[in-house]
Amino acid sequence: MTDQAPASARLAFYALPAIPMAAIALPFYIVLPTFYADHFAMSLATIGAVLLGIRLIDAVTDPLFGWLSDRVRSRFGRRRFFFLISTPLTALAAFMLFWPPQDAGVGYLAFWGVALSIGATWSLLPYTAWGAELATGYQARVKLSAWREGATLVGSLIAITLPFVGGLDTAAGFHGLAWIAVFIAVALPLAGVLAVANVPEPVDFSRRKLSLREGFRHLRANGPFLRLASAFLLNSFANAIPASLFIYFVGQRLGAPAMQGPLLFTYFLCAIAGVPLAVATAKRLGKHRAWCFAMILACAVFSVAGFLGEGDVLAFTVVCVVTGLLLGFDLTLPPAIQADVIDNDTVSSGEQRSGLYFAAWSFITKLAVALSAGIVFPLLDLAGFIGDQTATQTPEALTTLTALYAFLPILPKLAAIALMWNFSLDEAAHQRLRSSVEGKT
């Protein structure tokens, strides 16, 4: 067994599709709710309910596509073929959702939102499983994750820049979200073809095939995975709350709507710098401890935002810089740990089922975001917060916005730290696992 990562050129081709896929995710959860609320007469509570409903559908589609990703065979292998055929649906749904007609209503949002969720799930699950199996060593997986998540952050920067450069003041014509729609429609299929053509199918170490029922039984018995999944859900929920409220916090609490785009750009630009920092820290401390220290520091720094008010843009910029660096840890390290806990299942079950595991991972991610929208937006409504960014807010509404944005995320982050601090699957334990996986082929 070796901890050597694939060549950098190969990792770069593998990472390419993460750019357009990231350009889907961030606008969908941060820009799209406020865009539809501003221009299509939908309340924040309604939009939150639609997003939560989409996530409930994912409870079915995520395990289905994960299972299919593990079972579908072609001359391209399990992962590459299943990923490639998904890209047309994903690109089309993103195009329609981000460039809606001027008479779009709740039904339009729900239909194309579901289509995009299905397409994105279909694309993401074989893609992430492909990466988990492409690099097999403890630190090699951190490097691969760094390439993919670095590309994800580049896509996020594109997703931040285009809407604000193109403008979000109107739903007519070629607005900012339409720019994103065109970018995804062109870039995703092209990046998918380049990745499939230049990155090989990973080795399948399966010794048997499990029934779906037996597979879920092994998944439930995988203690390291359950611990990691619980911590990841808590931390993802904590991160999703400020992400959902960022535009409102900057525009209404800080009174600086013109800084929404620049501050988001700063945040994600710093996250790119945080990726190599996460790699170096994980090499020194181990993956789970490095992630814990990043979460501790994030709690301390992010709480500062709760004491900011109108005009405190410079102080909030510092918060964005530091928490952006720490986001690099959140994006890079948990998926690398997830790949390790799959090895634990492969040893016990005899089947390498990365697709099913990343399906559970994907559902946790989506559930966290949907819980944020389904909980936070109705609470804002109850506090009298008005979704129109030009509206004058009451002091009670602004206080609620601040408490939800800055203080609520700290509690789930602290719980995630408690779960992961003494995580059992360190580098030595993982080396033993890989020896068992590769020695039984």
Notable characteristics:
0% strand; mainly alpha; globular
Q: Rg from C-alpha positions? A: 21 Å
Number of strands: 0
Question: DSSP helix count?
Answer: 17
Give the ordered list of helices and strands. Answer: HHHHHHHHHHHHHHHHH
Secondary-structure-derived class: mainly alpha
Shape: globular
Low-confidence stretches: none
DSSP strand content: under 5%
Q: State the end-to-end distance.
A: 13 Å
Major β-sheet profile: none
Helix residue percentage: over 70%
Summarize model confidence as the mean pLDDT. 86
Protein name: Na+/melibiose symporter-like transporter
Family: Belongs to the sodium:galactoside symporter (TC 2.A.2) family.
Keywords: Membrane, Transmembrane, Transmembrane helix
Organism: Peteryoungia aggregata LMG 23059
Question: Could you walk me through the main structural features you see in this protein, from its secondary elements to its overall organization?
Answer:
- The chain has 441 residues and is mainly alpha-helical.
- The chain contains 17 helices and no strands.
- Helix 10 packs antiparallel against helix 13 and helix 10 packs antiparallel against helix 16.
- The longest helix has 37 residues, at 313-349.
- The protein is globular, with a radius of gyration of 21 Å.
- 54% of the residues are buried.
